Each structure stands twice: as C-alpha cells, then as structure tokens.
C-alpha cells in the first residue's frame, strides 16, 4: 500500500499549566500556508478551558481553515489530530478520512479530559510541563502533493520571585475574625506582584488572602506559602493557583482565597490555642512565598523542515536551496524506530528503556559499532549518563537525521551525546546551532563545552563573542560559572588585554 503523502505539523506548548485563557478563550498556534493545497492558510487553535455542552471538563484542539482575500475555496481533505506522549507516540487521536472545508471553517475537535491530562496521566501528557499536538493533513485524490513537515513552539513566558515577610497582627481587625497583614522584608528579584494578608476566623479556620498588586497585570499565578516560627520550625503551609483574568463586580476588587494547612505536629495545639486566643499562633510567624506567574507574554516560532539530499552541508541548513525530496525515507525510518516488535536491542537510562535496532546504531554511531561488535553481546546497553529526553532525541537523529526539538535548552546535551557516542554529524549540527545563536546567556557554557571536547571551531566562536561583548559577559552570573576553569578564564582575560 502506497504511503499517504501528508503535511505534518508538530506543535509544542511549553509551560502549558500556566495557560490563563478562561472559558471559550483560545490559545492560537502556528499559522502555515500549504502551496500545493491551493495556497490555503491553516491555523491550529487550543481552547484550554472549553465549556460547550460536549466539551465540558475538556480541552479542545481545532484545525481552522483561514479566510482568503480572493474568496473561499472548498478543499476536500483528510486530517488527523493527536496528543503525543513523552515517548513521542499518540495518546489520544481523532481522525477524519474525508471532509470538505471552506475559508473560516473549523474542524471537529480533539478533546482531552483535563482530569486525565493534569492529574491521572500528567507525566505522559505533560513532560516538563509541555503539551505536544500533532496534526496531519492530506488532500483527497491528489497525487502531486509532496510531504512537508513543520515544527512549531509556543512558550508561555514565566517570571518567578521569592518573597520573605513577617505576619503581624492588625489591631483594626473586625469583630467576626482576626486579620493579619504581612510585612515583606526582602524580595529576591523585584517588587512583589501580589499582596498577601492572613485571616483566622473565630472557628479556627485560617487562610491567606491574595490580591494582585496594582502595578502588575497578572494572567495566571501559582503560589506556595510556608509559615515558620522563630526556630525555623514549619507551622503551616498552603499552595494554589489563581486565574487573574477576571473582571471585578462594581467597586469590589477580586481576592483569591488560599486555605492554610497546619503541620500534623501542630494541628492539635494550634486549634486548642485558637479557642482561647486566635491570634497567638499567627502573630510574628515568618512567611516564605514562592511565586511563579505569567503576565500573558507568549513567544512563538515555526520551522519548516525539508527532507532532501544535500539540504545540510557541514551541519548548517542551506537557505534557498531546494532539491528533490525523499520525504518517505524519513517517515519510514521514524516508523521503524517506534516499531518495538522488530527491535533487537534495548538502551536503558536510569528509569526508562528504549527499544532500538543493532544495525542502525552500528551504522550511525562509532560507540555502538564497537560495543555491538564485542562477542559478549547483551540485550540491554546502559546509557545512564543521558536523560530520557536526550536519549529519545538522539535516537530520532540516528534514525532520521533530524532533530525534533532543537533549541538552546537541549542543544548542549545533544552536543555532549554526539561527542560521547561517536556521532560526529549530531555534534556538528549542534555546533552550527550554537555558533548561530551565541549570546551572553550561553557563550560561557559554550566555551567550557568547546574546551572540554577540544572543539577548536566552537572555542574560537565563543572567544570572539566574549571579546566583542566583554562588558555584557565579564562579571555576569554566567561568567562566575567559569571560576573553577582557571586556565580558561585566564586565557579569556589575557586575550582581552591583548585586544585592548
């Protein structure tokens, strides 16, 4: 059976649990144009808190056919929407073999139960708090369409702050309960994005009252509160999350209530004390608060990947050079990788096993070639120095010569994997990415990496960046990480002196 040619879009949403969209508000995803589908434009949308009748308690992902200026064209397509797990395989899928869509049409949704995603199977659906959606589109009765693949990333930007304060009794408290206010004595990075006060009722119920600071425009916030006495002993704690995209009624300002839980060793004594004098246990307690919040900033990028001969040269993508594609080769190799039935070797990290094929590993990696050539061949090879995600990405590269999730967060790990396991093409691909994306945040780490693995080209690129941007780099937190690399640090300072 001939493989169906399709357009594939992989959309990864990072920091997904910080989505602030309320009911029926969408998080827009990538928009892409498919020239061979009449130049039609398509967008993926996710509704994190869908609330229609059939969607209650679910998240909904849709494929949207955008309107066109020159009129709507009806296109007959098939499509598939899937939520991928931590292993890259579909967890939930909805597929439609044949449907007609005009401009501004919405597809039927992929529905995901929030309870399943966030609680029951969180590790599978949200590895590193990232949700990955896969969309495949193909045209009915159309043979001249080539397979194309897009990778898109949406990142909900977060800010974090640590607050330290002291709980003080408020003498102007109302009759019906005891109120306290919090005097913040230090802030880790900036002024507090929220106000926190504490209330204890006459019934012994204790909770924190949280309100957004006027200078902030928070969308979503997660708080962890810890109360301790003068000896450092924890007395109470609380944690919760709050959606700030709420319009206050009339003159009232919205408050968010966070119940406090007292530690087991203090539960009885605290309640006994409250019955006599409710404020004693909260007055002068130390408060430590960890806050992670979003103010609604989203960064996006989308990359079209061409699977073609000579698409890459010396590890770098050549712009404007398109040759005959071999799309089915990549797809078939990825399918081979995920087909555990045909695998004859296993790679084992600290806590996960990945099936693989001896012939592929031997052909692509000098390390595995030598390992598998030994007489005492084992069924399992331990690679405990790699985490699960890095090993998975390395295997994808070994089978398909592509990197699914290429970004600063994982490129250095993949560089090390390429060096350790004898995969020079992977190492060179990572070098190209690092060279093209050097900045003050990674140049020192790149210099250490180059020195450790004797990569003269990467070392030269990192040194040149530091010398040209010395005021921004030298003295920074990243520069302090070079303290234990004395010779390397002295080399940089010597070159800087010579340049001046």
UniProtKB/TrEMBL annotation:
<dbReference type="InterPro" id="IPR011333">
    <property type="entry name" value="SKP1/BTB/POZ_sf"/>
</dbReference>
<dbReference type="InterPro" id="IPR008974">
    <property type="entry name" value="TRAF-like"/>
</dbReference>
<dbReference type="Pfam" id="PF00651">
    <property type="entry name" value="BTB"/>
</dbReference>
<dbReference type="GO" id="GO:0030163">
    <property type="term" value="P:protein catabolic process"/>
</dbReference>
<dbReference type="InterPro" id="IPR002083">
    <property type="entry name" value="MATH/TRAF_dom"/>
</dbReference>
<feature type="domain" description="MATH">
    <location>
        <begin position="6"/>
        <end position="137"/>
    </location>
</feature>
<protein>
    <recommendedName>
        <fullName>TD and POZ domain-containing protein 4</fullName>
    </recommendedName>
</protein>
<dbReference type="Pfam" id="PF22486">
    <property type="entry name" value="MATH_2"/>
</dbReference>
<dbReference type="InterPro" id="IPR000210">
    <property type="entry name" value="BTB/POZ_dom"/>
</dbReference>
<feature type="domain" description="BTB">
    <location>
        <begin position="343"/>
        <end position="407"/>
    </location>
</feature>
